[in-house]
Amino acid sequence: MSRKTGRRLFWVVCLALCLAGFLLSVLTGPVKTTPGDLLRFIQSHDRVQAAIFIDLRLSRAVLAFLVGAALALSGAILQGYFRNPMADPFVVGVSSGASLGAVIAVSLGFEAAAFGFSGPGLLAFISGLGIVSLVYVLSLRRGGFKIETILLTGIAAGALASALTSFFLFMRSDSYDQAVFWLLGSFQLAEWRQAATIAPWFVLCFVAAIWLARDMDLLALGDETAQALGCPVRRVRKAFLAMSALLAALSVAVSGIIGFVGLVVPHWVRILIGPGHRALFASSALAGGTFLLYCDLLARNLLPAELPIGVITAAVGAPFFLYLLHKKR
Amino acid sequence: MSGATKNKERGHVPLLTLVVTALSVLVPAYLLAGEKERGHVPGPGGSPAVRAAFPRQEQFEIAKIQDLKDDLGRPFPLPERTPERIVSMAPNVTEILFALGLGDRVAGVTRFCDYPPEARSIRKIGGLVDPNIEIIQSLDPGLVIAFRGNPLRVVDRIRKLGLPVFVLDIGQGLEALFPLIAKIGRVTRSEERADALAAGLRQRLEAVGTAMSAAKTRPKVFVLLYGQGMWTCGGESYVDDLIGRAGGTNVASSMPKKWVLYKREQILKDDPDVIFILARSGEDFATGRDWLLRKAHVESVAAVRSGRIYELDENAASRFGPRLVDVLDRMARLLHPELFGDAP
After folding, report:
1. Which residue from A83, A102, A152, B197 could staple onto A120, CB 3.0 to 4.6 Å apart?
2. How far apart are CA B51 and CA B42, in angstroms?
3. Which residues of B touch A141 (CB under 8 A)?
4. What is the distance of C-alpha A182 from the center of its chain?
């Protein structure tokens, strides 16, 4: 099978799975509904069913897809940025920074909503971006830009933020229930407003990433070579870092920390369609969204009580990833 | 990388991060400027999006907005008559609704709502911190009563569906029970029954108070939560208030907390005259008492020596509802049998 037909097949399968996922998301839930109910609802409006199908289930599916796409795209960008397959949206400290912000907000009882985020969501977003900026500035001070420096600074800053998070949780053990939402992620409270908040940013970053994908291909050859081939290395790097941090921080702000999507989905895609970044970015976004859509389906329907989605992403993602990795070798 | 470009890059970094951060906060704010979250009066009929999509829906009869606010200070449109379907998001709310004779109107309860027994057969909406919003919506309730244990984020999500959510807070002592009952009575338009219920409880409360005025002693009381170590109730718990009204003194009263993990040395030093064990069943009580008598190494404590260790119904005592008065009554009789003329 040639790479081109393989790629086409990937897109067809992914799109079909994605549409099926949306349909399943709208049709399943704790309240029993049949396809017949959905058809009847489309023909004649019913207030309660409108709320269930559109306000609760569809908004949730759309948000899960957007967050999955944003996380996977962010991961794909960072793996290219660091030329390191271990990189994911959270390696530069976004996740630990954001969870620290959320847990501080929860333990201080800061619940007021603003700018389309809840209080903890907003603080998570700000502290997530803040810690990336800090990591970036710190790693520049130390004698020029080195990939290893920013990677290690990110890991250290992340560890510090995690320690502070644990400290706040320990001090306010009664807020633990709410903190779990941020530490393991959930779409339980998804609403259209959240989807509307992150959608424009996702689209912006997506378009920009596709636009700059050729430069990312050049960066894979090394910064000097890329520079020699006419790529404005510094500007491109800055843009990519800002995009990936923004995507990850937005995702955390609406849904809490959802691990594994950003790490694993770009790998799957690379194994299946090859390393060209333009196709990789687009396919990662589609595959990541679809993956998270199905994970959320499991989180909602596996047990009578809802599971945190972070549990599902790792439990489903890891074995599948191992299979793909070793089948290829 | 050369020194010149390095410096240049350094100069740009804070600016870049500042711009990115500022933009990403401000632009969503601008996009959402039209949304007015605050002061939104909840009313039945779907979120704004759904309302716009389905303008034909029936209008609910809502009396003019009277001066009713829930415990979050949000104005609440008072229904004209008792809502047909009420969802209760906490066990004590369920209990009060049943005590007001509204059991047949309760359409959804939490999985913890097991009193009165009839409540067990009602549709479960999930737990206190994880109620299922979809199930609540599917019940199409005319009233949702939330309590403080429900996370505010969940309550807000339900409000945004357009469901009328009335949020109640817990007060400090037993006295807070009366406004709680009055508010539930008002919001369900069962004011008279609420008054009657409150009057009955008040009478029993005062009977205990009158009896206690003759008490000559104030036994020291230790309350043990059966199960996980020596947990007891601190000064901020309403159980502390119950002990005081029952003519006793809570040994952990000075602890500025609701629940406290007690140390063995502390209980030896406090030397309580009476120990109450909050137990779910007679078996749990027996196990707890055996533990105190044999394994806890507290033999020198007066209550252990005299055997004044009594069971309290954990189910009744842990819910801020009418049965607290039963618990109070039992406590008073056990602490001061001489005033009631019966044996403990």
Report:
1. A102
2. 13
3. 10
4. 14
Among B10, B18, B27, B50, most A C-beta atoms within 10 A, so best to mutate, is B50
* Comparison of pLDDT for B201 and A42, the residue scoring more: B201
d(CA A294, CA A301): 11
Q: CA A309 to CA B327: how far, in whole Å?
A: 42
- Report the sign of the C-alpha dihedral through residues B32, B35, B37, B42, in that order: negative
Architecture of domain B214-340: 3-Layer(aba) Sandwich (3.40)
Global pTM reads 0.78
Chain A CB within 8 Å of residue B216 CB: no
Phi and psi for B61 in degrees, rounded to 5? Answer: -80, 115
How far apart are the C-alpha atoms of A97 and A130, rounded to whole Å?
8
Q: Give the one of A31, A118, A145 whose C-beta lies nearest to B1's C-beta.
A: A145
Task: Quote the pLDDT of residue B67.
Answer: 63
The CATH number of domain A3-21+35-328, selected from 3.40.50.700, 1.10.3470.10, 2.40.100.10, 3.40.30.10: 1.10.3470.10
Using CB atoms, pick whichever of A57, A115, A189 lies closest to residue B25: A115
Picking from A108, A189, A198, A203 by the largest number of B CB atoms within 10 A of its own CB, the best residue to mutate is: A189
User: Which of A125, A186, A188, A251 is the mutation pick for testing B, counting most B CBs within 10 A?
Assistant: A188
The average pLDDT across B243-256 equals: 91
- The complex scores an ipTM of 0.77
Instruction: Give bridge partners of residue B290 from the DSSP assignment.
Output: none
The pLDDT-based confidence of A55 (bands split at 50, 70, 90) is confident
Q: Where are the domains of chain A?
A: 3-21+35-328
Q: Report how far residue B25's alpha carbon sits from residue B22's, in angstroms, rounded to the nearest whole number.
A: 5
Average pLDDT of the residues in A312-319: 85
What's the gap in Å between the CA of B263 and the closest CA on chain A?
Answer: 19
What is the b/e burial string over A125-141, where b = at least 16 CB atoms within 10 angstroms of the residue's CB? bbbbbbbbbbbbeebbe
